[in-house]
Amino acid sequence: NWLVQLPPEWYTEYRDNKLVINPSKCALETSDNWGTVSNSYKHDLLGSSPLAYVLWKHPQPFSFPNGIRKE
Q1: Were 42 and a residue from 1, 9, 37, 63 both cysteine, which residue would form a disulfide, CB within 3.0 to 4.6 Å?
Q2: pLDDT tens, 28-38?
Q3: Helix (H/G/I), strand (E/B), else coil: 35
Q4: Interatomic CA distance for residues 42 and 35, integer angstroms
Q5: How far is CA 64 from the centre of its chain?
Q6: Quick check: 47 and 38 in contact, CB under 8 A?
Q7: Could you tell me the pTM of the whole model?
Q8: Closest C-alpha among 58, 21, 16 to residue 36
Q9: To the nearest whole number, what is the mean pLDDT of the chain?
Q10: Half-sphere exposure in the Cβ direction for 18 (13 Å, CA)
Q11: Cβ contacts of residue 65 below 8 Å, gap of 6+?
């Protein structure tokens, strides 16, 4: 904590019963919003990301269509 001088709950999490540092969690915890390159990727992250519980804290994440049709 003395190194980054941020609350540990912003950048740490438990994985496999070990406390680990996760810079992505810190970025999400301290951001107003987040976005992705496609709607489907946004939905994938909200459903299956290990950080989904942090992603869901933002009520309106944005995404931009990447121009590739699934059909």
Answers
A1: 63
A2: 888 999 999 88
A3: strand
A4: 7
A5: 17
A6: no
A7: 0.72
A8: 58
A9: 85
A10: 4
A11: 38, 39
Nearest to 57 by CA among 39, 32, 24: 32
Residue with tokens 């992603």: 55
- Overall size of the chain counted in residues: 71
CB 14 within 8 A of CB 20: yes
d(CA 29, CA 58): 9
Token duo for residue 71: 């059909």
Tokens of 22: 């996760």
* Rounded Cα distance, 32 and 59, in Å: 10
Tokens in use for 25? 């969690």
The pLDDT of residue 1 is above 70: no
Count Cβ neighbours within 10 Å for each residue of 28-63 and write b for 16 or more, e otherwise: bbeeeebebeeeeebeebeeeeebeebbeeeeebeb
